[in-house]
Design goal:
The protein is mainly α and 414 residues long. The chain is built from 20 helices and 2 strands. The chain folds into 4 domains: 1-26; 33-134, Cytochrome c-like domain (Cytochrome Bc1 Complex, Chain D, domain 2, Orthogonal Bundle), CATH 1.10.760.10; 157-230; 257-412, no CATH class. The chain is 56% helix and 1% strand. Bound molecules: heme C (HEC) (6 copies). Residues 39-131 form the Cytochrome c domain.
Length: 414
């Protein structure tokens, strides 16, 4: 009886392991079906940007939609094809994987795309390539518009300060206790008779400040403190990279907003194609510059850099200026298109800047203050009519962003 039970157990276990190994193999086979050919990867990258998958997806890290890295391990390629073509149809048809995804991300829905299977496969090739060969420099944005994760995570500074303060308090307490013990011991020893002259001398020795300061222990401690302080400052400096007000790094090409957006009045949207439709504003790719510079100022050395970039296919490594930490979610189209907020309110007079400078502090307080004080742009937006009516019944002040939940943590934090 017992033997039979054991056999059944072993058999079940073997079966489970087999299933596991088998399913694992299958998913690797999926990944291997995604091409690694450079031409296909380049085509995929183009499609990824052109169809603005990048406005909702990162390869690594969540955005509006899930990270795409490894999606060819999670799903069948056929599933991915029909998903990209019409995700809502799959959800409506009750596909279990599609329904689970939708439940996690709704109400964000994915746009249906009129793409061929091999175009979608090319996008997967690009995703696989980025996943397997991540870009080295995380602090630059490329014309492709993918976002490097915001630099710097780890122990928050406020915790570090608290820990350091607590340590100092403990050390001081220990010093006081030691001093008291020394005092008590000295008194006790002085009262004792049977104690040698030599020991007495030590007990009665006067404390010499000069000798103390010159002692190797003290010099060691002071040196250590100085080095530690210097290190802390360096780390603090690294911590604020990209979130500094007034940050205006030198760019690889002397591109001037004053000239393009100011004198020539080129619309911001012409280059920053994402501002009205997506989360990111996007940094223009070389192609957009070439619309004009294939014939304008062709012999300028700065413009020659554009030709070199186009020839090599390498995106220009513009230094990223504005960069919120990963924990915060900011969406351009919500502010520019829906909210009707001007670029200049947040970015300053860009059209007068020779070199772009970070105008706003980009802190949480800055976001919140504006949400408290800005009334909603509800004109001509049917969605708000009923809400405004309700609001006006209960309040004399105009409806502002805070009233529609603009102060809720989850609206801005993943
Ligand atoms: C408007 C935003 C948006 C755009 C643009 C977009 N997606 Fe999505 N995508 C989503 C959301 C949101 C989901 C999660 C499911 C849902 O809520 O519909 C998703 C899910 C997916 C999934 C399934 C991921 C998984 O973990 O199974 C794939 C694959 C995908 N998208 C590919 C693409 C591709 C390729 C493009 C460009 C051709 C694209 N998406 C463009 C929003 C978007
Ligand atoms: C001809 C194309 C073009 C136009 C038009 C243009 N920009 Fe830019 N913008 C760029 C490029 C290229 C960069 C990256 C290099 C730089 O920072 O100067 C950039 C950078 C920026 C940045 C900083 C991005 C970062 O890294 O954080 C902001 C903000 C910005 N632009 C806002 C605007 C606004 C507002 C307008 C309209 C008044 C505008 N731009 C018009 C091409 C353009
Ligand atoms: C809509 C047309 C247009 C677009 C798009 C455009 N530019 Fe320009 N650009 C101009 C004009 C016009 C000039 C001024 C030419 C002159 O001074 O004669 C200029 C001048 C320049 C100069 C100064 C060259 C010099 O040596 O004086 C640089 C650098 C430059 N552009 C870079 C860029 C970059 C980078 C992009 C893409 C992000 C871009 N431009 C996109 C029209 C454009
Ligand atoms: C309500 C404030 C606000 C308004 C309005 C706004 N931006 Fe931004 N912008 C930001 C913030 C915040 C970031 C940093 C986003 C991040 O790091 O995720 C940013 C980043 C950018 C960037 C860097 C690339 C990116 O997408 O992260 C560009 C370019 C840019 N903005 C251009 C524009 C243009 C052009 C307009 C007007 C059409 C505009 N912005 C309007 C707040 C704003
Ligand atoms: C200059 C004013 C201003 C600043 C600064 C600003 N916002 Fe907003 N924000 C608005 C307005 C106006 C709306 C309402 C748009 C609408 O009608 O849906 C809004 C809406 C939002 C919403 C949607 C709220 C909801 O309930 O639907 C989020 C999320 C958001 N902002 C995030 C941010 C973050 C994150 C920052 C800082 C990095 C920021 N905002 C800075 C003006 C601002
Ligand atoms: C309107 C948008 C918005 C809302 C609402 C919001 N936050 Fe934030 N929060 C931000 C932004 C942007 C940052 C990043 C600021 C920075 O880098 O200095 C941030 C940073 C933080 C941080 C990290 C602080 C640090 O020093 O790194 C914490 C913790 C935080 N928020 C908690 C909350 C909590 C809790 C709530 C709800 C009571 C909330 N936030 C609501 C936009 C928001």
């Amino acid at each position: 009886m017992v033997a039979r039970k054991t056999i059944v157990r072993y058999a079940t276990a073997c079966l489970l392991v087999c299933c596991f190994v088998f399913s694992g193999q299958q998913s690797f086979a999926q990944r291997d079906a995604v091409p690694t050919d450079e031409a296909i990867i380049a085509e995929g990258e183009k499609l990824f940007n052109e169809y603005q998958c990048n406005s909702c997806h990162n390869v690594v890290g969540k955005k509006v939609g899930p990270a795409l890295a490894g999606v060819y391990d999670r799903r069948d390629l056929d599933w991915i094809y029909s998903w990209v073509k019409n995700s809502q149809a799959m959800i409506a048809a009750g596909d279990p994987q599609a329904t689970a995804l939708w439940n996690e991300y709704k109400p964000s829905a994915m746009t249906p795309y009129d793409l061929e299977n091999d175009q979608i496969l090319a996008i997967m090739a690009y995703v696989r390539n980025v996943e397997e060969n991540p870009p080295a420099d995380k602090n630059t944005v490329t014309g492709g518009g993918e976002e490097g994760p915001a630099g710097g995570s780890g122990v928050p500074e406020s915790y570090l300060n608290i820990i350091v303060a607590a340590l100092i308090v403990v050390l001081v307490l220990i010093l006081i206790v030691l001093a008291i013990i020394i005092g008590v011991l000295k008194k006790y020893l002085q009262d004792k008779e049977n104690i040698s002259e030599e020991d007495k001398e030590i007990v009665n020795e006067k404390f010499s400040l000069v000798a103390f300061v010159k002692s190797p222990t003290v010099i060691g401690i002071v040196t250590f403190l100085v080095i530690a302080l210097a290190a802390k400052n360096v780390i603090d400096g690294l911590y604020t990279i990209g979130v500094q007000q007034g940050y205006a790094p030198k760019q690889p090409i002397a591109f001037s907003h004053k000239l393009h957006a100011g004198e020539y009045e080129i619309a911001c949207q012409y280059c920053h194609t994402g501002v009205e439709i997506g989360k990111s504003a996007n940094i223009p790719s070389v192609n957009i510059c070439m619309n004009c510079h294939s014939s304008i100022k062709t012999d300028s050395p700065e413009i020659q850099k554009l030709y070199a970039a186009q020839e090599s296919g390498e995106p220009i490594e513009w230094v990223r200026i504005h960069n919120l930490p990963d924990l915060a979610y900011f969406n351009h189209s919500q502010h520019v298109k829906v909210g009707g907020v001007e670029c200049q309110t947040c970015h300053g007079e860009i059209q007068e800047m020779e070199v772009v400078k970070q105008h706003a502090p980009l802190t949480m307080g800055w976001c919140i203050d504006c949400h408290r004080n800005t009334s909603l742009n509800t004109q001509g937006n049917g969605y708000y009519d009923r809400l405004v009516e309700l609001h006006n019944q209960n309040s004399a002040t105009p409806m502002n962003v805070a009233d529609i939940g603009g102060l809720e943590c989850a609206k801005c934090h993943y």
